[in-house]
Amino acid sequence: MIFVMVQIAGTIVAPEEPRNWDPKNPRIWIVFSNLEGARIQGGGVIDGSGSKWWAASCKINKTNPCRGAPTAMTIDSSSKVRVKGLTIQSAQQMHFTISRSVAIRISGVRVDSPPDSPNTDGIHISESTDISIQNCRIGTGDDCISIVNASSNIKMKNIDCGPGHGISIGSLGKDNSVGIVTGIVLDTATLTGTTNGLRIKTWQGGSGYVRSVRFENVKMDDVENPIIIDQFYCDSPTVCKNKTEAVKISQVIYRNISGTSRTSKAMKFACSDTVPCSNIVLNNINLERENGTAETYCNCAMGFDYGFVRPAADCLRNDDSSRCSGGSENNNRKHGQVNTEL
């Protein structure tokens, strides 16, 4: 094995004009592929010069055609790579993508883009396993961290997120596809002024599962949707049709979550009527609304809470199991079906 070290000490700046972009590489800029045991470090800056790309987005101007834009930095089909101390800013679209890779360690990375920059996920993980992200500060116009299909054993620690759309699993199941995500841990994070906090989002009609997820030791400051599971996600210009199939969501633990919600629904579990959420566990939750009363919303979500939980989440135990298919999985902890040490 040849050891590779990439030292980025200065600033790498992308071309400003989208028309100057290589048409043979419309979705990528800086790519590291088929590496093993590499180090990418140096404290430098990767600047995507994204402002003109954002202005051309259909999310900014609905008269524009919807087109993909480059990802600023990609690690693909690699293993045992470490990335440390870089800043990635103003990406054309996503900032940093990890795909089809194993044993990637990310530390001390900063992502910086304005809150109105469209589709600019901070760190995006797909088809990868054994990924560690720690001590990172991410401010952007989309998900701070997004985890999508065929990803497992993802550990995040000491994450500062905001602005942005929070920490997201999904979206999964679009166009009736299979989505599988398992073994996700977020331990110690601060989310400030984000659209969402801890989010799992799936489209109707998909299949597969999300399970063995733990979010703990998270502080929220003025977050619009602090805790949300949405199995009716629809990021489409047309109305999404109701479907009975869904990605199954189970074994999700929220522990030591506190802070303020911008909206009344501090916790929202909007789950499928035919493939309900199960084994949802809440422990030591304290979410308040600065002006008004916070509440918990449930649709076909079953589990339990213990310790101090505010707002109350009685709907997890009392949701109408006769209406929700699979309601027999009512997850009363006395049956011993929930492992709270995921």
UniProtKB/TrEMBL annotation:
Q: Any idea which UniProt keywords this protein has?
A: Cell wall, Cell wall biogenesis/degradation, Glycosidase, Hydrolase, Repeat, Secreted, Signal
- Active-site positions on this chain: H165
EC number(s) per entry: 3.2.1.15
Q: Which Pfam families match?
A: Glyco_hydro_28
- Group of enzyme by EC: hydrolase
Q: Which reaction does it catalyse?
A: (1,4-alpha-D-galacturonosyl)n+m + H2O = (1,4-alpha-D-galacturonosyl)n + (1,4-alpha-D-galacturonosyl)m
| The keyword Glycoprotein is assigned to this record | no
Q: What is its main location?
A: secreted
Segments carrying the region annotation (Disordered) are 321-342
- The answer to whether the entry has keyword Aminoacyl-tRNA synthetase is no
The processes (GO biological process) annotated in the record are:
cell wall organization
Matching SUPFAM superfamilies: Pectin lyase-like
Q: Which family does it belong to?
A: Belongs to the glycosyl hydrolase 28 family.
Q: What is the designated name of this protein?
A: endo-polygalacturonase
Species the sequence originates in? Dendrobium thyrsiflorum
